[in-house]
Design brief:
By secondary structure, the chain is an alpha+beta fold. It has six helices and 30 strands. Helix 1 packs across helix 6. The longest helix is centred in the C-terminal third of the chain and has 19 residues.
């Protein structure tokens, strides 16, 4: 198969910016939508704008407990009634008249201000106002949040709990969303054993499948499956070929490097996967593979858990969001001061597990490709460009915010 970036049969290692651009350019896009109950819409991406069918609030609403007045010429008013939340009465107030009112209640059409109860003295049916009056104070106008026919939430928005609350307040019961991808995780390695079994010398427990499945579930992707295979070329080729035709996204961990028992790259070529790129100038995760076949997007991630998870956040997550038509694809990033000196090892771009604190960001210990434990304390990745050397305390660094931390 032809490979993008082949030059005289040499596959060029590319930079991180180009790698992400190619993932988003060549990654598959979903065209299927479905209607779901609002309560089931969490973490889906809206496939179309949600249009409000009502004003919100649907009437002029009191913003606090107090007294609704028809402003008169002096500070004393006569109480003529009461309006509480849920009442549908609309008393007519003459000038100098008032009603007791409560937060969320409809403000009578003839009232032109609401005075908080702390600024009122009550004597029987007479109240005295203890502050200067101004029209429309403490009144939420009809349609203040949104008017009938307005766009409540835009297409491409990833639905969170607050969106569900807002749409519920508008009476929405169903939303049209983009279908989520079917994802297969293929884990390779002779040394891998399932948790709960006894380890022999030279063996380790398989964790990438469990980790990536959990992270995907945490992000709202439930349609995942995990397949574990040994370092066998024939088996690798067959599993890859069978799996790619059944899923929208295939993530392979391990077997993508150049060792004698790394069969994944060769198998990709044999079954007709179009390689978009292989190897990125980064640490961790240099042996990163991305390709495509029959509408499926295919990643080959490093076998080391921390490297696999870093590559997931930087490259796989944006593709997932693009697939669903999300307005924003990559994780958000900010610029923060470094809270301590850091000595850079290597000349590649680096993604370092870090923790954002009040005054800036701290690069954590345990940065090795196999050391996933530090991710438990991390809420960010610090990004250092190629050829960085000694990073001094106070220097501003690009910081990617990790989700759900």
């Amino acid at each position: 198969m032809a490979h993008i970036y082949d030059t005289k049969n040499k596959r060029l290692m590319i930079d991180t910016t180009t790698a992400l651009e190619l993932v988003l350019l060549h990654g598959s896009v979903n065209t299927n939508v479905l209607e779901v109950d609002l309560k089931d819409g969490l973490d889906y991406v809206l496939a179309q704008d949600v249009i409000s069918e009502i004003d919100m609030p649907p009437f002029r609403q009191s913003a606090m407990d107090g007294y609704a007045l028809h402003m008169g010429d002096d500070a004393t008013y006569t109480l003529v009634g009461e309006v509480k939340a849920g009442d549908n009465n609309n008393p007519t107030l003459q000038k100098g008249k008032a009603v007791r009112i409560f937060t969320g209640a409809p403000v009578p059409i003839t009232a032109n201000t609401v005075v908080m109860q702390e600024k009122v003295t009550v004597e029987g049916t007479k109240i005295t106002i203890e502050e200067p009056l101004k029209e429309n104070t403490n009144i939420r106008p009809q349609g203040e949040q949104i008017k009938l026919g307005g766009v409540a939430i835009n297409k491409g928005t990833t639905i969170k709990g607050v969106h569900i609350g807002f749409l519920a307040s508008l009476g929405v019961t169903k939303i049209t969303v983009c279908k989520k991808p079917s994802i297969a995780i293929i884990v390779t390695g002779n040394e891998l054993k399932s948790a709960g079994t006894k380890l022999s010398y030279g063996e380790i427990y398989e964790s990438n499948g469990a980790m990536l499945t959990a992270v995907l579930n945490e992000l709202g992707y439930q349609n995942t499956s995990v397949i574990t295979i040994k370092d066998d070329y024939g088996k690798t080729k067959k599993v890859l070929n069978d799996t790619i035709g059944k899923h929208d996204l295939v993530i392979v961990t391990g077997g993508v490097s150049v060792g004698d028992y790394d069969f994944v790259g060769k198998a990709f070529d044999e079954i007709g996967v179009e390689q978009v790129f292989y190897k990125v100038k980064q640490k961790p995760g240099k042996p990163l593979y991305f390709g495509k076949k029959e509408g499926a997007s295919i990643f080959g991630l490093p076998g080391n858990p921390a490297a696999a998870l870093s590559c997931f956040y930087i490259y796989v997550y944006p593709l997932l969001k693009k697939y669903e038509g999300a307005e924003h694809t990559s994780l958000p990033s900010i610029s923060l001061p470094l809270l301590s000196d850091y000595s850079v090892k290597g000349t590649q771009a680096q993604f370092l597990k870090a923790r954002i604190e009040a005054a800036g960001v701290t690069i954590l210990g345990g940065q090795g490709s196999a050391m996933v434990r530090a991710f438990g304390d991390a809420n960010a990745l610090v990004c250092l460009p190629v050829n960085s050397t000694e990073i001094k305390k106070g220097q501003i660094v690009k910081t990617i915010l990790l989700p759900f931390k």
